[in-house]
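Exam prep: given the inputs below (a chain plus adenosine-5'-triphosphate), describe the expected output before reading on.
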Amino acid sequence: MSFLCLHAVDFGFADGTPLLHGLDLELARGEIHCIVGRSGCGKTTLLRLAAGLLQPQAGQVSVGGVAPEQARSDIGFVFQAPTLLEWLPVLDNVLLPVSLQRRPGARDVEQARQLLARLGLGDYAQRYPRQLSGGQQSRVALARALVLGPSLLLLDEPFAALDAITREELQADLLRMCRSEGTTVLFVTHDIAEAVFLGDRVTVMDAGRIVRQLPVAGLHDRASPAFAAAWAQLRQAMHLPVGEAMADAVAECAP
Ligand SMILES: Nc1ncnc2c1ncn2[C@@H]1O[C@H](COP(=O)(O)OP(=O)(O)OP(=O)(O)O)[C@@H](O)[C@H]1O
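Solution:
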């Protein structure tokens, strides 16, 4: 059975303009699923529906068989900007989701420290956000989203503001941590290579609809022909140029 399920979802904002139309999306438990699409096509809105922050006008959304509002404590969210609280040290920022529910105990602190250590920030627990680089702040935001051990992690272009090297490091960190915990991930990005690297499947959206889904599991070698072919197929689905030689190669291999 699917873990995250959006079935026949219609959604439009209060101004009346319809945005999502009959959208169906299913993620198996433990699947890492990436969404790509042009600016304004509805990716963030889809994430907010999956989180229960917006309600569909028609259709159903469920997380582990219940409405997302009922699963809220089992859902982690990472936004494009790290949104850390400047006046709290790193450790307290990571513990924030716990503090909003109850007073953090020794086990919570240990869990937060372990997450920071796994993300290479073991020595930064008592620093303040302004004393960290952009990449380090993004790692803190990721640790914060993982501190309650969520079953579902929703990420909205979390690494978009980072340089290419830091972004690749964080992609590898995310993949390792979510695989080891069996976390189900819905990841929105503009970066097609990021989607191919991270995803088991990639969905392409256009104007509120799903126009293509591509299985990309196991494509982690960015220099491999299979990676390039998946990248090119996704670019084509987004009506972006891929170069003649690549277009010919894709036409030969594509089902
Ligand atoms: N609160 C709102 N009220 C009205 N319209 C909105 C609201 N939020 C978003 N929209 C509109 O809905 C459309 C989809 O927005 P959404 O943020 O889901 O797009 P997106 O695909 O995530 O874009 P981007 O890649 O630029 O982040 C856009 O046209 C946007 O202007």
